[in-house]
Structure formats: structure tokens, C-alpha cells
Write a structure and sequence with these properties.
With 444 residues, the chain is an alpha/beta fold. The protein has a domain of 215 residues: Rossmann fold. 48% of the residues lie in helices and 12% in strands. The protein is built from 17 helices and 8 strands. It has an 8-stranded mixed β-sheet with strand order 1-2-4-3-5-6-7-8, sandwiched between helices. Helix 16 links the parallel strand 7 and strand 8. The N terminus is likely disordered.
């Protein structure tokens, strides 16, 4: 009976779970939407990740033919095949970059390094179920190296920076509009549950610079290089991260201190608002998608199938505390039936530095804007997407809790932007986001 429940749970999660990314997680194929589901894969999780990388083509972070040829080589449902084929493409494209650079073809080298970095990151994506897998650090390091090589070839170069944080430093990149050192409006962009700051090149940094904004990206505990190389796990009190990042941004002469904005993507839609609640030096905040409690939608699904306490998110957490072993057994069986659930729990344990699904969920349940959302003072844009089932209700919960000047944008499948964080529709998303920011920062 327990295995039957686990199978049902896995199926339900494959249909309902969207995890927080900077963007991660797939979503259900909808017969009436036009976001390209089932383009290559029948599994909605794999198809979402393919759509995610295809979206990078808008800013040169990937190429359509390279993505599709790689996807067609992948054996459906085989995450090792996923790694092997993306890694092979990354190696081939990196070879193009190195050959172009040796021949003095700077633009060609830069473009190929950007694409290779994206493909190395895609290769590494599903490996986190075994934190000791050496391919994790190797592939992610290759991705970072390729982006760093590309960054040096821009004019002006994208500057690698280190942001003082507690007894260490966080990695970042500073994107300048030009070399004038004239103070300009600046946006800090951060990722979420599974993204990297290199991905933010396409996720908003280019869009910002094109519109006259400087941009600072960074990774905090639980993210990218910080969790892989420094071993620092996520923390719910993200204000302890945002304040040092703002300190660093305001130390730079290129930054206009009166026009500093913060943009959080995916689970960053919780992290950035959490930081903004304690940081009064921000002139604007963007949460895409907005999140009040990131664990809540996931617990709502889990509670339907494992919760002796009454079928609510709060009841699920109570039941985990009472009998964590029973929860772990049910979830581990369900993970065998769902790529999406297996990845989500594996990535959660990897980035939170815990060794069981129950420990992850108990840690995750601390993440909340309760008692903090009303302290956000700057104008705030909350964003939702109509097929983002895993964030269902969260943007509205955050929006309703705000007492600051606020706006709400809903992206739809009809316009090709209904997926989580508008994956595959970056140009439309950035048009609306930065138009809002232009108007907000120009208002006296």
C-alpha cells in the first residue's frame, strides 16, 4: 500500500510541483498553452529545462540548433544521458571558442564561450542526488571558467568581483554601461534555488545594460559556486546576505545611491523581498515570481498524500516532526517514480546541506515573509505566470501582505510567457519589468 501511495504521490508531484530556480523545476503540459511543451521530451520536467535553455538564445547564451540537436540525442528519462550529451556539446562549443580566440576572432570566441558555459551548467543540473559525484564540481567549474573567459572579451569587460560577507566573500559580476564612472541607476539581480549568477547574464543583466543600468549579480549561501566550493548552505534570514551586497554596491562610484534596485528571480522572489524588508537603501524591488512562503505550495501537494495531521502544509510539517522516518520512506519511494521530485529533493538536500528529505523540508519551512513583508518600504513589483503551478497563490499572498507602493503583473500562456519566470519569453518579460523600473525610478 505504501508503494502505491508513493507512486501516486510521484505522479501528482510531476504534475503539480514547480520548484524555485533561479529557476528550477518543470511544469505540467497544458493542452491550451503555447509554450513549447512536448517539443522534444514527453516528461514535463525535461521539457521545461529544454525551454529554459532555449530562452537563453534571446541574448546569445545558447543557440537553437545546438540545443535541439543535443536534446534529440538524450535518452528520455535518463539523467546520465542528459549529462553526457550536454557535456559533449559544451566541449565541442568550447573548442570553437578556443580556436576562434587563437585566431584573433574575439567576438566569435566570446559568443562560443557564453554558449559553452550554458551547456556545462545544463550537464550538471541533475547530478545533485549524490553530492560526492565529482562531475558536479568539474562541470560547474568548466561553466564558470567559460563565462569568465567570455566576460574578459566584452567592452567594457564584465568585472569579476568579491563581496565581503561574514568571514568569507561572495562571488559577483559587475556590468558597466561604459567606462565613464558616471553614477547610474543600478540593479542587483539574484537567482534562487538552483540557478547560477552566470545564468543571470541572460536573466536580466544584458537587458539592464542595454537600458542604461549598471548591474551587479552575485551568489549567496546555497547557490552556485558558494555551495559547491565553500560549502555554505541556504539561510532563511537572507537580510544577512543582502545588506553586505548593498554595502558593496554603494561603495562603487558608478552606482547612483538614490537609484539602486533589487531583482529576485524564482526562489529569489522570496530571498530578495526578505532582504528588502530589512534594507532601507533600496529604491525599488522586483520579485519574479513573488513568494511569501516558498515551501507552502510544495507542502500542499505532499500533504494530500502524506499527512496524518489533516491535509494542510502546517499539518505536514507537524507530521514530519513527529515521524521523520515515515515521511522519508514515502518520499524516497516516490522519488523513484518522478525525475522532478527526485531532482527537487536531491537539490534541496544538496543546497541546504542536509541528508534526508525530512531534514530539508523542516529547514525549508522556516522560510517565510510573515512579519517581514509589511516592512518593505520601497516600490515593489510582484510578478506571476499563469501556468506556474508550483508557485500557485504565492505571488498574490506576497502582494496582499505588502503595505508599500506596489504593482502586479500576470504573464500568460496565450502570450507565450506562462511558464515559471517566463522561461522562453525573456524579451517580453524584460520589456515589462524594465519599463516598470524606468517609470518607478524616474518618479520623484
Amino acid at each position: 500500500m505504501r508503494r502505491v501511495v508513493a507512486i501516486i504521490l510521484g505522479m501528482m508531484l510531476a504534475a503539480a510541483l514547480m520548484v524555485f530556480c533561479g529557476c528550477g523545476g518543470g511544469e505540467t503540459a497544458q493542452p491550451d498553452d503555447h509554450n513549447g511543451q512536448n517539443l522534444v521530451f514527453s516528461d514535463p520536467e525535461l521539457q521545461f529545462q529544454l525551454t529554459r535553455v532555449l530562452g537563453d538564445t534571446a541574448y546569445g547564451g545558447a543557440d537553437i540548433g545546438e540545443c535541439l540537436s543535443t536534446a534529440w540525442r538524450i535518452e528520455e528519462g535518463d539523467v546520465n544521458s542528459w549529462y553526457e550529451e550536454w557535456y559533449a556539446t559544451a566541449e565541442r562549443v568550447r573548442g570553437i571558442a578556443e580556436e576562434s580566440l587563437a585566431g584573433g576572432h574575439t567576438v566569435s570566441a566570446r559568443e562560443a564561450y557564453l554558449r559553452a558555459g550554458t551547456y556545462y551548467a545544463m550537464a550538471e543540473f541533475y547530478l545533485h542526488g549524490d553530492p560526492s559525484d565529482p562531475r558536479i564540481r568539474e562541470s560547474s567549474a568548466q561553466s564558470r571558467d567559460c563565462f569568465a573567459a567570455a566576460a574578459d572579451l566584452f567592452d567594457p569587460p564584465i568585472e569579476a568581483v568579491r563581496i565581503p560577507y561574514e568571514d568569507t566573500a561572495l562571488p559577483g559580476y559587475f556590468y558597466r554601461v561604459d567606462d565613464s564612472n558616471v553614477p547610474r541607476p543600478t540593479i542587483i539581480i539574484q537567482t534562487g534555488f538552483d540557478g547560477t549568477q552566470e545564468e543571470l547574464y541572460c536573466g536580466g543583466a544584458v537587458a539592464a545594460v542595454r537600458r542604461g543600468y549598471n548591474c551587479l549579480t552575485f551568489e549567496g549561501p546555497g547557490q552556485g559556486e558558494v555551495v559547491r566550493e565553500q560549502g555554505l548552505p541556504f539561510r532563511y534570514d537572507w537580510e544577512k546576505v543582502i545588506t553586505p551586497v548593498v554595502d558593496y554596491a554603494l561603495s562603487r562610484p558608478e552606482v547612483d545611491p538614490d537609484r539602486l534596485a533589487l531583482f529576485g528571480i524564482s526562489m529569489g522572489g522570496y530571498l530578495a523581498p526578505r532582504g528588502a524588508a530589512y534594507e532601507l537603501r533600496l529604491a525599488a524591488l522586483i520579485a519574479d515570481g513573488g513568494v511569501f512562503e516558498p515551501w507552502y505550495p510544495i507542502a500542499s501537494v505532499l500533504a494530500q498524500y502524506y499527512d496524518p495531521s489533516g491535509g494542510t502544509p502546517e499539518g505536514l510539517i507537524a507530521s514530519i516532526r513527529e515521524d521523520p522516518d515515515a515521511f522519508d520512506q514515502a518520499i524516497q519511494e516516490a522519488m523513484q517514480e518522478s525525475i522532478q521530485l527526485d531532482w527537487f529533493m536531491g537539490n534541496g538536500m544538496f543546497t541546504f546541506k542536509v541528508d534526508s528529505p525530512s531534514a530539508f523540508m523542516l529547514a525549508y519551512s522556516q522560510y517565510s515573509m510573515e512579519g517581514a513583508a509589511q516592512d518593505i518600504a520601497c516600490p515593489t513589483l510582484v510578478i506571476d505566470s499563469d501556468h506556474d503551478t508550483g508557485m500557485k497563490g504565492e505571488p498574490q499572498r506576497l502582494y496582499d501582505a505588502l503595505t508599500c507602493p506596489k504593482d502586479f503583473i500576470l504573464f500568460t500562456a496565450e502570450e507565450g510567457a506562462g511558464l515559471h519566470c517566463q522561461m522562453g519569453a525573456m524579451l517580453l518579460a524584460h520589456q515589462r519589468i524594465f519599463d516598470w523600473l524606468d517609470e518607478t525610478l524616474s518618479t520623484p
